[in-house]
Specification:
globular; alpha/beta; single chain; about 50% helix; 3 domains; Rossmann fold
C-alpha cells in the first residue's frame, strides 16, 4: 500500500513531462519562425542577397550587379567549368556563386569589408557551393592574379586604372577580364555588351610582343620591329615593309600543348628502339649494381598501375563517404580510362620489350608506351588537383611532387631493363595529354549544383 502513492506520483510526473515535451515540439514545429520546410531553408534565391552592414572605408562603393548583368558578364567571358575566377571586390559573392552553380567553376572572392565576406560565405553555404568558391578579406591591390583565368570587376573607373598594370603584368596571355559599367581608359575593350541600363566590358589579356625580333626561314633572316599598344600593334619588317592594324587575341596554349605532346609521342613511336634508344638504355641499366637495382625497384612502385588503381578506388570511396561525389567521379573518370587506353596502345602497337639486358622485374604486356610513366603522371596529378585547394600554399609543391613521382617512376623502367627510354617519354606524353584533354570535360562530371534562375 505505501508504494502506491509513489508509483502514482511517478506516473503523473512522467505524463506531465511527456505533455510538456509535446507542447514544446508543437510550438517549434508550427511557429512562424520554423514553418518553412527544409528544402526552402536550403534553397538559394538571388533575390535574398542582403546588403552588408556598415562597411569600412572602401576603394569602391558596395554595389551589387543585377543578376542579368552577372549572367551577361560570365557569358561574355566564355566561362568554362575548369576556369578559376577571381572577383575583386566580391561583395555578397553573387558573381562567384553564379559561376559555380551554373558552370561548376572554382573561384576566389576578395573584399576589404568583413561584413561583406561574412555575407558572401553565408550565401555560398545556402547555394551549396562552399566546395567550389571561397571568400577572403584582403586588399584587392594585394591579391595575386597569376592563377586567374577570369577576373571580374564592379568597381570604379579610377580603381580599374589602378588595377590595370597588375592585370597586364600578372595575368597570362589569353585570360579574360570582365567589368560591369567601368572601362580601362585607353586599353580599349575587346567586346562590349549592353544589358538594360548597364554596359559590360570584356578584355582579353594580350601577349607581350613589343620590341625587336628576327624572323628566320630557309636560311634567311628578316628583322621585325613591333610597337605594341595593349592588344593592338604596328611595326616594320625587312626593308621598310609596314605592318598596320595588327591585333592580338590571346593564345591557344592548350591546343598547342596537345599538338606538341602528340608530335613527341609519334616521334617516340617511329624513331624509338634505334641507336640513341639503345645507348640511353645501356647507360641507365642497373644490372650488376645492387644498390641501383634496389633504388629502381622502390621507385618503380610509384607508377605501378595495379597499385595506383587500388589507390584511386580507395580515395574515391573516401570522397564518396565525405559526400564529394563529383570529385570521386572525376577521379575515376580520369584514372581508369587512362589505364585502359595505355593497355589498348600496347596491344595495338605491340612493340617488343628490349632484350639487350636481363629484365630485373617481371612484365605482362608489350612495351610501348610505359604504363608506369603514364599512370604515375595521371593518378598523382589528379589526386593533388582534387584533394588540395587551389589557393592552398601547398598546391604547387604537391604538383611538383606528383610530377616528380611520374619522372622517377618512368626512369626506373629502363634501369630495370624492361622499357626502352622512348617508351617512357611516350608514357609521360600520353599522361599529360590525357590530363589536358580531360581537364575541361572532367569538371562537368558528377553532381553539379543547379543553375541559378534569375526569376
Amino acid at each position: 500500500m505505501p508504494r502506491r502513492p509513489v508509483v502514482r506520483a511517478l506516473i503523473l510526473g512522467a505524463g506531465a513531462a511527456l505533455l510538456i515535451l509535446l507542447v514544446l515540439f508543437a510550438i517549434r514545429q508550427f511557429s512562424p519562425q520554423s514553418e518553412a520546410p527544409r528544402e526552402a531553408r536550403n534553397a538559394f534565391d538571388p533575390a535574398a542577397y542582403a546588403a552588408p552592414a556598415a562597411a569600412p572605408q572602401l576603394d569602391a562603393p558596395q554595389l551589387a550587379s543585377a543578376m542579368e548583368v552577372v549572367d551577361a558578364m560570365l557569358s561574355l567571358a566564355q566561362l568554362q567549368p575548369d576556369d578559376y575566377v577571381i572577383d575583386l571586390g566580391s561583395g555578397d559573392g553573387r558573381i562567384l556563386i553564379a559561376a559555380a552553380r551554373s558552370n561548376g567553376a572554382h573561384g576566389l572572392g576578395v573584399d576589404i569589408d568583413p561584413a561583406a565576406i561574412a555575407q558572401a560565405n553565408r550565401n555560398a553555404q545556402n547555394a551549396g557551393v562552399t566546395g567550389l568558391v571561397s571568400f577572403r578579406r584582403q586588399d584587392l591591390f594585394q591579391t595575386p592574379l597569376q592563377e586567374a583565368d577570369i577576373v571580374t570587376l564592379y568597381l570604379t573607373a579610377q580603381v580599374n586604372l589602378r588595377l590595370r598594370p597588375r592585370i597586364l603584368a600578372q595575368m597570362r596571355p589569353g585570360t579574360r577580364v570582365v567589368s560591369n559599367e567601368f572601362d580601362m581608359g585607353d586599353w580599349h575593350y575587346d567586346q562590349r555588351q549592353r544589358v538594360g541600363a548597364s554596359n559590360v566590358f570584356l578584355w582579353v589579356v594580350p601577349a607581350q610582343v613589343d620590341g625587336d625580333w628576327t624572323l628566320t626561314e630557309a636560311g634567311r633572316s628578316v628583322p621585325l620591329a613591333i610597337d605594341q599598344d595593349f592588344q593592338r600593334f604596328t611595326g616594320t619588317a625587312g626593308g621598310g615593309v609596314r605592318i598596320e592594324q595588327g591585333r592580338l587575341d590571346g593564345t591557344r596554349r592548350r591546343a598547342l600543348a596537345l599538338a606538341g605532346l602528340a608530335l613527341v609521342w609519334g616521334a617516340m613511336l617511329w624513331l624509338g628502339t634505334g641507336a640513341v634508344d639503345r645507348a640511353v638504355l645501356d647507360g641507365l641499366y642497373a644490372g650488376g649494381d645492387q644498390l641501383r637495382t634496389t633504388i629502381a625497384l622502390v621507385l618503380t612502385r610509384f607508377g605501378d598501375p595495379d597499385l595506383l588503381t587500388l589507390v584511386s578506388a580507395l580515395v574515391a570511396l573516401l570522397l564518396i563517404a565525405r559526400r564529394r561525389f563529383r570529385s570521386a567521379a572525376m577521379l575515376l573518370a580520369v584514372s581508369l580510362p587512362g589505364r585502359l587506353l595505355v593497355d589498348l596502345q600496347k596491344a595495338l602497337i605491340a612493340r617488343p620489350r628490349p632484350d639487350a639486358h636481363l629484365h630485373l622485374i617481371g612484365t605482362r604486356t608489350d612495351s610501348f608506351p610505359s604504363g608506369h610513366a603514364a599512370s604515375a603522371v595521371i593518378v598523382w596529378v589528379t589526386l593533388v588537383v582534387l584533394l588540395i585547394p587551389e589557393d592552398s600554399r601547398w598546391r604547387r609543391p604537391a604538383l611538383a611532387a606528383a610530377l616528380l613521382a611520374g619522372l622517377v617512376a618512368g626512369i626506373s623502367r629502363p634501369m630495370l631493363g624492361v622499357h626502352w627510354p622512348s617508351d617512357v617519354v611516350a608514357g609521360w606524353c600520353f599522361g599529360l595529354f590525357w590530363l589536358l584533354l580531360l581537364s575541361r570535360l572532367a569538371a562537368r562530371l558528377g553532381d553539379r549544383p543547379t543553375p541559378i534562375s534569375p526569376s
